[in-house]
């Protein structure tokens, strides 16, 4: 089935297995590229325009031009998705990604490489997190600070986050890394933002140190609609160990309950804990899919 999937590469729709880019592409040589990823819920794309707004901001930060307008990018995204939707079952969904790299440097300059692609979401391999909660481990590796490269831009180079992943999964294969920033406060993990709930307040790290996740902002909006107080603040490990609840947000997870951080059970260890459950159910209402059930049904 994978072989039938179609990707968009530099102006053409091609079978994934036939897709080709140059070995001299600076995306590959230097990790110099930018991407964004949304997903479908019940085969309908979620917040494409918010994702493309963030994508074009990341491109601007990285001084990259895809030479395609945002509207054209949206059209190509939808065309690609429609071509690939027939390849998955009605209860499966896709990650939908746009990538632009610096391309190949020649004496005439550079032409960026533009790739759009879809991948089925990994519901089965992540389903346990919704049943038992996610064990978070804080690695020794710190998150790239804004003084080095802004984590607010969705830069393709994940070496920092992957290094963290190797470290924590070598200790516990199920563990999910959340890195500290250079000041010792919680920041984010591979593809995911972090939240705690303390005394009814929904708290997440400040945007300066993390990617402004679309699921993060969706969660903050839903929390406000539910009448919960929200706060962007420094969260250190004391705050985490004494929190009532914790969860991560991401495009694929939406909201995923955290069981423990560094082995310390958060709150009463209930999965999902009461406020996380209310937020998850509000998120499910917004997207028209029972998010937990979509994962749990794969167990
Ligand atoms: N943090 C990082 C480093 C990410 O790469 C991502 C998404 O891939 C997120 C957070 C979550 O962002 P979103 O909710 O838009 O998926």
Give a short summary of the structure.
32% of the residues lie in helices and 28% in strands.
Please, could you describe this protein's structure?
This protein is of the alpha+beta class and 299 residues long. Helices cover 32% and strands 28% of the residues. Helix 5 (159-171) links the parallel strand 7 and strand 8. It folds into two domains: 6-121, 2-Layer Sandwich (D-amino Acid Aminotransferase, Chain A, domain 1); 125-296, D-amino Acid Aminotransferase, subunit A, domain 2 (D-amino Acid Aminotransferase, Chain A, domain 2, Alpha-Beta Barrel), CATH 3.20.10.10. The structure holds pyridoxal-5'-phosphate (PLP). The site of pyridoxal-5'-phosphate (PLP) has 15 residues, from strand 10, helix 6 and strand 13.
List keywords for this structure.
single chain; 299 residues; alpha+beta; 2 domains; nine-stranded mixed β-sheet; 15 strands
User: Structural class, judged by helices and strands?
Assistant: alpha+beta
- Given as residue ranges, the uncertain stretches (5+ residues, pLDDT < 50) are none
Helices, by number, come to 9
The count of strands amounts to 15
List the ions, cofactors and other small molecules found in this model.
pyridoxal-5'-phosphate
The CATH architecture of the largest domain comes to: Alpha-Beta Barrel
CATH topology of the largest domain: D-amino Acid Aminotransferase, Chain A, domain 2
- Mean pLDDT, nearest integer? 97
Q: Could you describe the largest sheet, including whether it forms a barrel?
A: 9 strands, mixed
Radius of gyration, in angstroms, nearest whole number: 19 Å
User: Between the first and last Cα atoms, what is the distance in angstroms?
Assistant: 22 Å
Helix content: 25-40%
């Amino acid at each position: 089935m994978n072989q039938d999937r179609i990707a968009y590469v530099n102006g053409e729709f091609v079978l994934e297995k036939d897709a080709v880019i140059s070995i001299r592409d600076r995306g590959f040589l230097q990790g110099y590229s930018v991407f964004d990823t949304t997903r479908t819920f019940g085969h309908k794309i979620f917040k494409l325009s918010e994702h493309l707004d963030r994508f074009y901001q990341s491109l601007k930060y990285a001084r990259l031009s895809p030479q395609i307008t945002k509207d054209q990018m949206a059209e190509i995204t939808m065309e690609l998705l429609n071509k690939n939707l027939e390849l998955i079952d009605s209860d499966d969904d896709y990650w939908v990604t746009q990538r632009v790299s610096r391309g190949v440097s020649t004496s005439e300059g550079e032409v960026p490489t533009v790739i759009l692609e879809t991948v089925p979401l990994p519901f089965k391999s992540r389903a346990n997190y919704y049943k038992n909660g996610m064990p978070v481990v804080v690695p020794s590796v710190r998150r790239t600070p804004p003084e080095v490269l802004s984590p607010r831009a969705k830069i393709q180079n994940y070496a920092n986050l992957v290094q963290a992943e190797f470290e924590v999964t070598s200790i516990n294969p199920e563990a999910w890394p959340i890195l500290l920033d250079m000041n010792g406060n919680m920041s984010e993990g591979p593809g995911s933002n972090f939240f705690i709930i303390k005394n009814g307040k929904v708290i997440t790290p400040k945007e300066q140190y993390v990617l402004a996740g679309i699921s993060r902002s969706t969660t903050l909006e839903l929390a406000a609609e539910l009448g919960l107080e929200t706060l962007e603040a420094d969260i250190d490990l004391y705050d985490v160990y004494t929190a009532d609840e914790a969860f991560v947000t991401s495009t694929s997870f939406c909201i995923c309950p955290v069981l423990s951080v560094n082995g310390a059970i958060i709150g009463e260890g209930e999965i999902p804990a009461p406020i996380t459950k209310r937020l998850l159910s509000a998120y499910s209402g917004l997207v028209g899919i029972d998010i937990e059930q979509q994962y749990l049904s794969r167990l």
